[in-house]
Structure formats: C-alpha cells, structure tokens
Specification:
The chain has 284 residues and is of the alpha/beta class. The chain is built from nine helices and 16 strands.
C-alpha cells in the first residue's frame, strides 16, 4: 500500500457565460494549495478527475474508450502512474469502457462501484481486470465516506440498498464532494425518479455549489425538484459534440435557464477545470 493510499480513510457553448464568470474567476496570480475538478473531454460519456490539495486523486468514470488516457495525460504528471481511487458509477459502456484502458496503464489503489451488474463484454473485462490485478474493491452504500485530504471528503449519497438487479442508470452512484466550505454533486446517469427520492429524503445534503447535470443533459434527468434541492451556481455537462441522442436536451437547458443556473459543456468548452481553495472556486 502506498503512502497516498494510506491517507484515504474509507468508511465505506458560451450560453450563460456571464453567469459562469460571476461564479468562478481566474486568480490574478498562481495560487498554491488548490484542489481541482477536471471534467475530461471524453466525447459522449463521463469522466471526472478530482485532485485534492495533497495530490490524492479520484477518477469518477472513464468514458467510452481510450480517449480518457489522452485526457489524463494532460492533467497528470507524465511520471504519475498511480490513481488512488476509481469509481465506476454504473456499468454502461460510456462510463466504464475507458476504465479498462485506465487499469492497464495505471496502478489503482481502490476500486468502488454500484452492485448493479451488466451482461456486456466491456463490463466483464473491467471486473476481471480488477480481480486479476488484485485491486481492493467494494460496492458502495449511502453514508460511506472517502477522506481525500484535510477538509476534503467524497461522500456516497446513493445507492442506499442492494441494486444488483436494477436498471443500470437507476443504480448510478451519486456522490458529494466537500472541499472546505465548497461542494459539488456528481450524479452519473441517475433518472428523475432517483433525483426526486433523494430530494425528499436527504434534502440538506443535496445543497451544493456545482452540479453535474445528470445523464449528459438527457431529459430523463434534471427535474425542477432536484434543482430546487441542489441550488447549484454552476452546472457541468459532459456530452459529445453532435451526439445522436441530442444531449444536452433543450428541455433541460430551458430548465437551467429558468432557474438562472449557468452551465458549461464539453461540447463547447472541451475539457474544463475548476480549482478550489476551500473558500472560492477558480477557473484554471
């Protein structure tokens, strides 16, 4: 076990750009001791790399293919071949396909996922790789917490029960990142039914600064009730340019506009990095 792993305590388009600029600002000079959220540009899929102030790294999903390796090489040191934690939110190929390649190139300290299963070769290959490499692996449950650094935690909010035979999107891992006074919520492909359930049962824990807009901006996610509970000041949308699904859906963008929530999409911005000192957000 590396020293980095030992630090982890496991309790188990330019639309609304003015709003974005009000929320984040580029520091006048380079700041030290910043945590980072990298929304990686993996096309039609999801992948986020979270880096704590002390360098601990959490990779949340890996997109569909090896594109994630190119994206990681842009934000990680060339000689850094270790990722502390990998979380697969659910087994769909556009979230876990790239993780197969990640496990080939990087040493992984801990692997976490929902216990929903999928009968696909991609998912089977990923799980087999976890087993072959003897990576410590656990199914997540609500209340589990990863202490990534001082005053930096990633808390699991969902699932709160056995989901092994559920529809895969419905079983997506939902997690809250807390960095000092600042917070972000990551939702995978959670549908509106899960959003409403969480809004009714753990309302206070949903109140965050940054919200990953669910399911790449699909209209099957992002309800008014969820936006009222989360009250984000910025939405992050990971979706492929000219994708066949029409993500992000106009209904979702209209809803974000209705709630005066600025958003950033990989379709327009490419990869996007937020930095955080525990008090303010900064655009790198």
């Amino acid at each position: 076990m590396t020293s980095k792993t030992a630090k982890i305590a496991l309790l188990f388009c330019l639309i609304l750009i003015l709003g974005v600029l009000c929320f984040v600002s580029k520091p006048k000079q380079e700041l030290n001791n910043l945590s980072k959220i990298h929304m990686l540009n993996v096309g039609q899929g999801d992948s986020f790399l979270i880096e704590s102030v002390d360098g601990t790294q959490l990779l949340l999903d890996g997109g569909r293919d090896a594109t994630v390796l190119t994206e990681l090489s842009k934000v990680m040191a060339w000689n850094d071949k270790y990722i502390d934690v990998v979380i697969a939110t659910h087994p769909d190929a556009d979230h876990v396909g790239g993780l197969v390649d990640v496990l080939k190139r990087y040493k992984i300290g801990l692997f976490l996922t929902s216990d929903v299963v999928a009968d696909t070769q991609t998912y089977k290959s990923l799980i087999q790789s976890v087993v072959d490499k003897k990576i410590p692996a656990y199914y997540v449950r609500q209340g589990m917490n990863l202490n990534l650094a001082d005053k930096t935690d990633f808390k699991i909010l969902f699932p709160d029960r056995d989901t092994h035979d559920w529809e895969t999107n419905t079983a997506s891992v939902v997690g809250r990142l807390q960095i000092g006074d600042r917070s972000a919520l990551f939702t995978g492909d959670s549908p509106i039914s899960v959003e409403k359930y969480l809004a009714q049962t753990i309302t206070k824990e949903l109140d965050v600064d940054v919200l990953q807009i669910g399911h790449h901006g699909s209209k099957t996610s992002t309800s008014s009730e969820y936006l009222k509970a989360t009250t984000p000041e910025l939405g992050l949308i990971s979706a492929g340019l000219n994708n066949s699904y029409g993500h992000p859906h106009p209904e979702v963008l209209d809803l974000l506009k209705k709630f005066s929530i600025p958003w950033v999409s990989t379709q327009q911005a490419g990869a996007y990095t937020l930095q955080n000192d525990g008090v303010k957000w900064y655009k790198k």
